[in-house]
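Why this split exists: single-chain examples teach little about how molecules sit against one another. For that reason, every record in the complexes split bundles all components of an assembly together and asks for one structure covering all of them. Below is a record exactly as it appears in the raw files.
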Amino acid sequence: MTTANILCLCGGVGGAKLAYGLSRVLPADKLLIVVNTGDDFTHLGLRICPDLDSVMYALAGINDQQRGWGMAGESWQCMQMLAALRAPTWFNLGDKDLATHIQRTAALQQGLALDEVTRELSTALGIAHRIVPMSNDPVQTVVHTTAGALPFQDYFVRRGCQPVVTSISFRHSDKARPQADFARALASAAAVIICPSNPLLSIDPLLALPGVRQRLARRKVFAVSPLIQGRVVKGPAAKIMQELGLAVTHATIARHYQDIVDYLIIDEGDRDEIPAVYESGVQALALPTRMQQAEDKIRLANHIIQQMAAVV
Amino acid sequence: MTTANILCLCGGVGGAKLAYGLSRVLPADKLLIVVNTGDDFTHLGLRICPDLDSVMYALAGINDQQRGWGMAGESWQCMQMLAALRAPTWFNLGDKDLATHIQRTAALQQGLALDEVTRELSTALGIAHRIVPMSNDPVQTVVHTTAGALPFQDYFVRRGCQPVVTSISFRHSDKARPQADFARALASAAAVIICPSNPLLSIDPLLALPGVRQRLARRKVFAVSPLIQGRVVKGPAAKIMQELGLAVTHATIARHYQDIVDYLIIDEGDRDEIPAVYESGVQALALPTRMQQAEDKIRLANHIIQQMAAVV
């Protein structure tokens, strides 16, 4: 295991917690963190990649743990002035966070690809581990609701996840190529970890890229369920599962991932759900999955790496 | 005079003081403020119009009078983060000021012309008077120095006006059309006021636009000299005049403007220079031109309007 490469698939804030933990227990050259870009959008001319930023800020240790998103020590002077100038203000733009969006947008305009920009930003933030976008090609998560088809940020931020979801699609995903390091890891990684991000909104965009599901099916894949005692720590995963007529259980998560996942890691308090997970053809591992402090994140990462060592 | 239109030609901070004064003594529909855009540039993907912003902030009463530029109550969180991200930091971007650049850039990208964007920003800031860019077409002030040809902001901000100036040119000014309101006022204004901005750097770009000099020559034009006792209040005008071998006197300013200006307004403390001004074929008026407090700006504006009423 020590010389093998670990591929980590990650969404935003929830996934970033485990990505942080993994970055603390694995050397930089053994871990590749691939991040959802289906939530990316252009707002006020700025290219915003919320999940990439969440993962970068978490690994750089500059994320706001109290608020749960964005940068620590953030201020909102630009935002207030934008409001005075009658700009749309439904998407929060912190003064510090803006620097990332400005620098990224300028670099993209200069012709750099998103993975190159992400490497430059990560390096500047002192991050040794590799964080890459799932693709340099744009993919747009579209949330189909009883209020119509909504771009992700429109659903998630502007409407606060209120509309009832009927389905989710990933525009242009059929034409988007997996980022180069991601593609290589899909062919060679000793094991894959799917972070406890929203499977439907944050992980499915990665799985929708051409060839990803097929190639993951050939790897040892460990997914961490985002559910704890029938709830999610944060976000609309449970609400959406209910709206889609799915039971909010680990077995549902296991069935969702059953063609690619070998082991579903569920919270140790949910051991009674292990038999139902097994029934879907996925093995279950019970571990402490609640991550509040840095120690929790590192402990879960260590547990997973140990379990992997036993089976890979 | 009360029904006549006043056309005000203006650069940045220095000119904005008189523009503010004029806006306090003339009704909104009697004054058109035309602003230099030769200093405009694109930085980190943001379109920045320093002189338009200085005039807008001054008229909106949100300019920082202590620092002399930018917005009052400014903070620099984004700037510090940009530095951490290794972005260029030679041009100051305040958190509040950024809102203007972001909103303007987004509006221009959506296809609005600079004068339309400026009207929207002005309206949002509660400015009743009309502020327009000299042209919607890009003009670039280039400062030719012994260190080479430098874009204006490179000379002015990055190099702090240190290089020795040999000449100044206005790139694309031959193809740039005066903004529509500006063009109309050139044909109809009862009088024109040239603010005490840097004649070589801030006013000459307006005069370089096709037809402007010729049409100004047919109007009654009052220019306020930026010199007071052989010095400028702010900026490199005196330094550049010396580098170009020009005496730092009101007579030099008068000769510079002699084909278009009827009256040069000099500071009341410089009355001894009146004969030299007359020798250049321009009439001289001595008024208190030092503007520190709002009262000074309003008083000078009132004086000028009264002088105009006597001769127009």
